[in-house]
Specification:
By secondary structure, this protein is of the alpha+beta class. 26% of the residues lie in helices and 29% in strands. The protein has four domains: 199 residues, Alpha-Beta Complex (Spore Coat Polysaccharide Biosynthesis Protein SpsA, Chain A); 109 residues; 195 residues, no CATH class; 93 residues, no CATH class.
Amino acid sequence: MPRVKVSVVVPVYNTGRYVDECAPSLLGQSLPADEYEVIYVDDGSTDDTLARLEKIAANHPNVQVHSRPNSGWPGAPRNLGMRHARGEYIQFVDHDDTLGPEALERLYEHAKRNDADVVLGKMSSTMVRPRRLFRHTVDSCTIENDELMQSMSPHKMFRRAFVEEHNLRFPEGPWILEDLLFVSAAYLKAKRISILADYPCYYWMKRDDGGNNTQHRFNPRHGFWPNCRTIVRQIKDGTEASDDIDALQNRLLHRLYHVEVLSRTREPEILREDPAEQRQRFQAARELALTEFPAAVREGLPAVSRLRAELLERDDFDGASMLAERVREVKVRSKVGGLRWEDGRLVADVTFDLLRGDGEPLVLVERDGKRWLDPELLAGVPGAEDGWEVRDPYRLAYAELVIKDRDREDWWYPEGELEVRLEPLGEGRSHLVASGRLLLDPQRLAGGRPLKRGVHDVWAYVQLLGVDRMVRVTGDGTPGAPATGPALTGGRLALPYWTGSGQLALDMDQRQRRFGPDTAGDAAANIGRGRSSLPLPYVATRPGEAAAPIKVTVSALALDAELSPASDGTTVELRLPERLKVPAGRHPVTLPKTDIPIAYAVVRDGALLRLEGPAYEPGTGRRILDSLADNRHGQRVRRRLGR
């Protein structure tokens, strides 16, 4: 019997139909079924969840179901699942999330290759913004890589022997922040941590009923503030104290301070919640900040965040509220210039800066040899009447471009880095600017693989002076109009355009945008050099009158197809039957007596969804009619088409 490589532990409670939505992604993994197990632990559900689980287990030998009295939180069921686990590694999955089809296989191979104690798989989510932690795959690191603190959910793969050696367990019962306690303990103990960033492993999506949102976060029964204190002390116990703002302990505590403490002082929370309730949270956050966080953590914050911390420490709720009002109005301005295609990549010069609510740049003012935060931003803010010094304008400042696959919620990072610089505005004024070049390669962006068919939106995350924004990358183009000419990369059509909101987007394979015959010349001119190319994509349509018959093979299925002259007068369209007796998936389309695919047929439930292709080796640059010239049957077709 093969050894169990991975145990997937899934705590469930009153999950209902979401069990059935999650199960296919767990049971359909590329890892052989006898090499992994799925352990469901029901936490005393009162609906039909347990019956649904038992039905799944009855039909799948690698699924086991355990039940326990309700504990009110995921910690106890996860611990029970770990006790039953036989796998070399344990992967935690929540009952309403899903895994990528190859997630377990890829994560396990990455773990074994690097002898990792913990593996973080790339997450796609509608719950949180993309994390730069997943920009690149990392074979081995330790907690010294403080970017690990960007990912504190338990949805990771842990070596079971490592978990047992250090007796890592989740706190049981209603214990908010239980994931932070477990994951931070694992990070501190792990000798090797790996990151798999080139494949979407985990899909953490918001439920339509809101059931996976943490509710009653500050309910005293859940102990938010004492639990936060416990986590802070665990990090302090595992690291060395230092007055250096860049020392490891202070870098690790920065995440907790910024997310759990300063959130109580900033927009939107301080402006959205009931003032009486928010004042209580403000007081609790202040007490925790003063008693548990070293001064170096606060001193290491960028300018606006450091001012928030100062107002919190002074117990100035009104000042913090006014500052939140002003900062809420700050916007990020994006500029896109020189949009073009170069060697199969979409290229543009991009710039980002901050604007105040009145539309003017957020500036720094030089006075007495120092830089001061924009006085217009601080006008009338209690506690900031004398101004606020910006000691280091570059502190924790950065910006990055990200591409969102709109259909799948996957986020990818294009090539290149954005540089933050201080740009003079005259009269002792300057402002921070992030600029650089967008280099979007449709053939390699998705973890080294081509982008999938669909619309891919261009976004940016900007963090300057402690003001952070996730923004659409917009330019001066007309909404709904092409942003630049189309291109053919890898034989697939790429159409850049401005969305209705003015955001830069790339449509691959005509997901929403259509390719007109008047742009054929532009597309042909933008073929990526040194890449597989095709003047026009193949399209799946009903046979027309001007079509010529041709024999093709889809996988092992031989069938009659048709070729029809395209409207540009230089190429043809390949047309297949709408129904194909082949399994669901992506199948090569070949000509008789050849084994080089001229296209790929994407089939689901026996229906032809679309044609993609071709799959020539890079650099050949051959068209479909050129390939027909090498085939005796194809030569007859060429004569039939008058070519």
